[in-house]
Amino acid sequence: RQARKRFVKHLFYSPDIDRTDPAQLTIIGGLRDAINQGELVLHYQPKISLVTGAVTGLEALIRWQQPTGELIFPDQFLPSAEQTGLINPLTDWVLRKAVGRAMEWRRKGVDLELSINISVRNLLNPHLGEDIMRVVREARFPLHRLMLEVTESAVMTDPVNARRTLQKLSDAGIQISLDDFGVGHSSLAYLKDLPLQRLKIDKSFVFDILQDRNRAIVSGVIDIAHRLGLSVTAEGVEDREAFDILQSLGCDYAQGYFISRPLEESAFLDWLENYQPIQT
Ligand code: C2E
Ligand code: MG
Ligand code: MG
Ligand code: MG
C-alpha cells in the first residue's frame, strides 16, 4: 500500500509517462488490475435546477478504492490512464456501470439526467461514438438523458475528429456539455463550432464569485451561452452566497458541496428521498 501510494504521488508530479520507469509500470499494472478486480467505484454528485430547486441530474465521478478502503482520486490516476490508453476500457467501464445503476434507479421511478466525463484520449478513439451508443442502447437507457461532459483540452487535441465524434453522438440525441469552461484555451471558438447543449462554468470562477471580476465573467459567460441557446451549470457551489448570486445571474443549474458532495452509490437514493428543495 505504501509502495502504491508512492507511485501515485510520483505520477502526480510527473505526468509524462516513462514506460521504462518501474514505478510507472507498476501503477499502470495496478490500474489494469483495479478495473478487473472491482477496485474502481463511482460516486454520484447531484445537480439541481436554480429555477425550481429540484434535483435534475447526477454526475458519475470515479475513485480507486484500495483494499484498505482508502480512496484515490481521479486527478491522481487519470493522466496515467490517458497516456497508456487504459482510459478507453476505463471509460467503457464507467459508462456501463453508471448506465446500469441509473437504470436500476429509473425502475424505482428516479428519472434524472446522467452525466459521464469523457477524456482527451477517448475522443481520439474512432469507435467512441458507436461504443457509447451500443452500451446505452443495450441497457435501454434513454439517449436524451445521457450527458457527456467534455473538457476543452480534450477537444483541442484533435478538433476535427473530436467535432465529428461529438456530432455523431449529438445527432443520436445524447447531450454534450463543455466542462471546466473558462480555464482552457480557445473557449469561444468551441462555443461556435461544437454541437453543445450545455456549458459548465469551472469551479475556480464560482469559488470566488463574491469578487466583482469573477461575477462579471460568470455573468458574461451565462449571457453568451444563453444567446447561443445553451443552458449553464455552475460547478463548485459551496455556499448560500454563491448559490444566490448564480441564481440572480440567471444560471440554470448548480452543483457543489452546498447541495451535496459526491455520494456513494448506496447513499444516493436516501439522499434523494430526504432532499428538501433549496428555497429559491
Ligand atoms: P469535473 O468533471 O470538473 O468534476 C468536478 C470535480 O469537482 C470533482 O472532483 C468533484 O468532486 C469536485 N467538486 C464538486 N463540487 C465541489 C465543490 O463544491 N467544491 C470543491 N472544492 N470541489 C467540488 P473529482 O471527483 O476529484 O474529479 C476530478 C476530475 O476528474 C473531474 O472534474 C473529471 O474531469 C475527472 N473525472 C472524474 N471521474 C471521471 C471519469 O469517470 N472519467 C473521466 N474521463 N474523467 C473523470
Ligand atoms: Mg465533469
Ligand atoms: Mg468541471
Ligand atoms: Mg474539472
From TrEMBL:
Residues 24-276 form the EAL domain. This is EAL domain-containing protein.
